[in-house]
């Protein structure tokens, strides 16, 4: 689910993971 609470974005590792996921979709 891409609708992750802003609190979870505090985690650099998770943020990096989300960025990689988005780049894969592009």
UniProtKB/TrEMBL annotation:
Top-rank taxon: Eukaryota
Name of this chain's protein: Uncharacterized protein
Protein source organism: Trichostrongylus colubriformis
Taxonomic lineage from the root: Eukaryota, Metazoa, Ecdysozoa, Nematoda, Chromadorea
